[in-house]
Specification:
Blueprint (H helix, E strand, L loop, with lengths): L1 H18 L15 H5 L4 H120 L1
């Protein structure tokens, strides 16, 4: 967050330097003193230095105001971005919860289907076993009847042969 604020402040300084590209400063006075300069305090150099100081004060005041405005705007932007991020995070959490709930519901449905299929298969197997048992019993009864009939026929045939 500090990085964002410092980059915004740097941008404000850059904007200020673009807004005031050509400040009119008087040429620099050399460190050599001339006696004639001290005799005329209201000369060209004296008047120019006062104007430069006033321009510098005005520029400093405007720069300070612009920096304050820039910092306030940066704070507002950061606050807005934090609110947006928080809202998006809340939305993502809710979506994740909904997805997890949907996945759990689908898993439960799948488990119910598997259980239902297993129960259905078990019932079918039971029905088939019962049907097979009934068929086996019927076949056994028929075999017993057929054996009785054959035994009776053999008995009658033997008795006929013996009587003849």
């Amino acid at each position: 967050m500090a990085g964002v604020a410092s980059s915004i402040v740097k941008m404000e300084f850059l904007n200020l330097s673009k807004a005031y590209p050509h400040l009119t400063f008087q040429p620099k006075v050399s460190s050599v003193s001339f006696p004639s300069v001290s005799k005329y305090p209201k000369g060209r150099i004296g008047a120019g230095a006062g104007d430069v100081g006033q321009q510098f004060d005005e520029l400093a005041q405007k720069t300070g105001e612009n920096i304050k405005i820039g910092v306030e705007e940066a704070q507002n932007k950061v606050k807005n971005m934090n609110e947006k991020i928080e809202a998006e995070a809340d939305g993502m959490v809710k979506a994740a919860k909904e997805n997890a709930s949907n996945i759990a519901d689908k898993a439960k449905e799948g488990a119910d289907q598997v259980g239902s299929s297993a129960q259905s298969s078990q019932e079918k197997a039971g029905e088939q076993a019962s049907s097979l048992k009934d068929k086996t019993v019927d076949a056994a009864e028929k075999a017993v009847e057929a054996a009785k009939d054959n035994t009776e026929k053999i008995k009658e045939a033997v008795i006929e042969k013996l009587e003849s």
